[in-house]
Amino acid sequence: MQLQKLVVFLAGCSGLVAAAPTEGLRLIKTAPSDPGRWVTEEDKITEYKAKGLHFVDITEIKDPDVLAILSTPELEEPVLSRRAVIYPTGVTHQTQANPLIAQVSNTSPQSWLKTLTDFYNRYYKSSYGTQAATWLFNTVQIVAAANPAITVTQFTHSAFNQPSIIAKIPGTNSSLVIVSAHFDSTGGSSTARGPGADDNGSGVVVILEALRVLANAHFQPKNTLEFHFYAGEEGGLLGSQAVFSTYKAAKKNVLAVVNQDMAGYSPSGKISIYTDYVDSALTTYTRAVATAYTGATTSDACGYGCSDHASARSNGFPAAYVCDEKMATSTPYIHTSNDAYSTIMWDAVLRHAKFTVAFLVEASFI
Ligand SMILES: [Zn+2]
Fold first, then answer.
1. Which of these is catalytic: 77, 335, 339, 352?
2. Which parts of the chain sit beneath pLDDT 50?
3. Are strands 298-300 and 272-274 parallel, antiparallel or unpaired?
4. What's the pLDDT score for residue 10?
5. Among 129, 175, 191, 352, which residue has the least CB neighbours within 10 Å?
6. Closest CA to 203 of 160, 265, 156
7. How many CB atoms are located within 10 Å of the residue 93 CB?
8. CATH 3.40.630.10 occupies which residues in the chain?
9. What are phi and psi of 260, to 5 degrees?
10. pLDDT score at 5
11. Is 335 a catalytic residue?
12. Is position 309 annotated as part of the catalytic site?
């Protein structure tokens, strides 16, 4: 306390912005009712992530609307209900979707996931994490090059070097349908080996395979389709938070965000569609698409701040979360050095990639 007062006093005298006593610390929030707590970068991983505790890093969030949603119990949905999109009650574009789904394979995903998991880790503040981002950016560009209309951009972040990456297939209108997956990883500390195969190399290769198929086919959507590869999810949803904050400020019309975080470990053989901290109407539609194209689904809830759909939601956009398995039977290797390529169940990856192509085709006509 003594030091804190001194620092504030000195900063006031010099006319500088007061140096917070919390310099170097991060403010994280673990529940709607949690006002936030200051922790070190390392504690975010070792004391929360590695112990299965979810949080949102709210250090940079200044928008009162976003903070209000992050502090509201999830079932209340106060602001979001006023922004509702009307979704179709079922699927209607099998004729367009099925030939594209037939092009989905595991050949490229296996090659991409091998490279992703060979990085020592993809921790968002490590040099490995930056190298992985560079490789992913180049790879997305190569995949997208099949259709020159597709753009690929890096979304840089001010507090860390790992950029997020966004590919866009322009539609005949600017309304957005977004599929997303984070590509950073953690092995349980900032320096641990973190192959991040299921979490979330699997989600990355799933949406990249969907992009490959749609790019090769020169698929022309009505709505604009975006593929988001987020940095810094394991640090408290940092990449997605910055992207959706920018989209909110730009007043982008987002029809749907379908997030996939873990798509390669599924003893049940069924896609699991999570029901908490999501848009319920979009979730119903997402389940209809998944059921029509991949068969029966399961449901579960993963709690506060469990993945990047929470960032879309807190910025007022409709979001759903599609996972490979219910919590109780999901990968036992999460956030450890054992989340390895060899543990991936490739039938799950194929199922998620087919679902993703189906969803993008169906939702492109909303
Ligand atoms: Zn994770």
1. 335
2. 1-19
3. parallel
4. 34
5. 191
6. 265
7. 15
8. 80-363
9. -125, 120
10. 34
11. yes
12. no
